[in-house]
Backbone:
């Protein structure tokens, strides 16, 4: 009798943990589909206009002679694509939160039965999905136009997911501390310039000044671009595992700070 009761009690924590996990995922999926329904009116901006800047950058560098061989073409094209994937979700969550704060939406959201992390992940997931077509289209056009070869494997998927998450915590900081949506846009532009010029996205690491070589190690884009380029060149997921772990570290650290150290109702 006692052993039966002990067995039943042992199963209680397991069942509770499973129920909590299922409830957490269910809430996340509901928020995901709500955001998906919301963004249907602006899909064309992400899908059609998304590749414009990366392709314009490739065209400019090609005309100026900066792209001289397939290796350089792959380096720059992959850097352009990963830049869009990292900054797209970050800028999206920053703008959503900034405008929500301006309209007092965050006061309302703070009363609803879901966590900050669930909402952030739902919003960032949708933004990442809408960024992927532009990124893959840039790679495809670059392959046809500039003549480099790529290897598309399933190993790219975790790299792209981690790249999309790596700086979304910074986007939360921008969105919460920005005075309004216009202020968030200015801060997003500053972040874009910092990431573009302080990490080896378009310029090889060895060609950067020594100071920028050091600062590039502090930005997740450096590791995302390295892993993405290596994977496109045929590297296995195991070979880029160190960069993936570093990206995961950036994601967890920034999301922790964003969700546990910030009050959305701060004045």
Residues:
């Amino acid at each position: 009798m006692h052993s039966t009761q002990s067995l039943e009690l042992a199963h209680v924590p397991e069942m509770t943990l499973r129920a909590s996990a299922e409830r957490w995922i269910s809430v996340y999926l509901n928020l995901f589909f709500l955001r998906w329904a919301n963004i249907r009116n602006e899909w064309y901006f992400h899908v059609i206009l998304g590749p414009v800047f990366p392709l314009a950058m490739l065209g400019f560098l090609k005309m100026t002679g900066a792209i001289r061989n397939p290796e350089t073409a792959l380096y720059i094209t992959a850097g352009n694509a990963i830049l869009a994937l990292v900054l797209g979700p970050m800028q999206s969550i920053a703008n959503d939160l900034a405008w929500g704060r301006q309209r007092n939406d965050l006061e309302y959201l703070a009363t609803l039965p879901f966590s900050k992390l669930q909402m952030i992940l739902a919003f960032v997931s949708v933004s990442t999905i809408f960024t992927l077509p532009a990124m893959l289209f840039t790679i495809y056009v670059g392959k046809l136009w500039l003549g480099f070869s790529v290897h598309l494997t399933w190993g790219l998927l975790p790299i792209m997911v981690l790249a999309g998450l790596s700086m979304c915590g910074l986007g939360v900081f921008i969105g919460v501390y920005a005075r309004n949506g216009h202020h968030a846009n200015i801060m997003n532009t500053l972040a874009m310039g910092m990431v573009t010029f302080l990490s080896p996205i378009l310029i090889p690491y060895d060609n950067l000044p020594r100071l920028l070589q050091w600062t590039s190690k502090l930005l997740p884009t450096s590791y995302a671009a390295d892993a993405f380029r290596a994977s496109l060149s045929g590297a296995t997921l195991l070979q880029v595992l160190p960069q993936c772990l570093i990206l995961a570290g950036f994601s967890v650290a920034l999301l922790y700070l964003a969700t546990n150290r910030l009050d959305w109702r701060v004045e």
